[in-house]
Amino acid sequence: MKWSEISIHTAEEAVEAVANILHEAGATGVVIEDPEILQRQWEDKFGEIYQLSEKDYPEEGVIVKAYLLVNSYLGETVDQIKEAVNNLALYDIEAGPGTISLAEVREEEWETAWKKYYKPVEVSDRITITPTWEEYKPKREDELIIELDPGMAFGTGTHPTTVLCIRALDEAIKGGETIIDVGCGTGVLAIAAAKLGASSVQALDLDEVAVHSARINVKLNHTAEQVSVDQNNLLDGVEGPVDIVVANILAEVIVRFVDDATRVLKPGGRFITSGIITLKEEEVKQAMESAGFRIIESHYMHDMYDSEDDGAHYPSGDTVAPPTILDRTAITSGWVCIIAEKLA
């Protein structure tokens, strides 16, 4: 069996959209290579200025890689991927260069190539995410472990927007809450909510691959009693009331269902949203306020490595992405998590 490694040079803003395009095309093992992150990682590791090869890494933008099975439809699949990347502009998503390249790899290389990128990561005060093939033992009595298979769908749960949502859930959940996770992907937020003490979580996604992946991960993490996973378009036909709605998806999608979020939430219920670049922050906030929400707070994060104490860390102590939460005035680009409350 042969595999082809597809590499897409894109802008930071488009990373999640491009990764989703690859998943929908049947790709596995999606890897995000941000030169700024990698260079910072190596500098921290060796205590010196480290220059990445210009041949392998661009000066600007991000490389998104994935693996496609080599078959008679590969050319058609790549053409569909190119078209989808080009069409991101229709949704006001800057795709950057959008250049695509292919390289053939043997199956034994593919099976291990992308796994080297994933290690256990502490994403909040209580939660550590670890890939299924890593043996990991909790370092603290109150540490909660989430196991994921990032080769299945939608990433490893350590993207800045995911971490921001998990931290917001960690603060909001006191025990016994009812929650809806819109656009659940791997189910990581739903699983986190259950482990943090939510009594019931509805995990929803339109993509059947995501639904399949989430169901497997829910079972793997022994949260099936609290978490149900269903295929659904946003909140269409979903009944409430619930205490919290969480959504880690694109800003353009969030603004489409803020009215439904209001409908399914209890008065005083929380709407936790991320997947939002800072340039789209005000657009999302205005939509929320128009739908009857009061903005409580916003948290910000760079998509880069940092050595601050509030960053996500390898359990060994080495800093990993995503790092520090920042004040709005401190950044011009990055990600935002908006936490809003439904007015009575």
UniProtKB/TrEMBL annotation:
Record keyword Glycosyltransferase present: no
Source domain of life: Bacteria
InterPro entries tied to this protein: Ribosomal_L11_MeTrfase_PrmA, Ribosomal_PrmA_MeTrfase, SAM-dependent_MTases_sf
GO BP annotations, alphabetical order: methylation
Gene3D superfamilies on file: Vaccinia Virus protein VP39
Binding-site positions, S-adenosyl-L-methionine: T162, G183, D205, N248
Subcellular location: Cytoplasm
Function: Methylates ribosomal protein L11.
Protein's recorded name: Ribosomal protein L11 methyltransferase
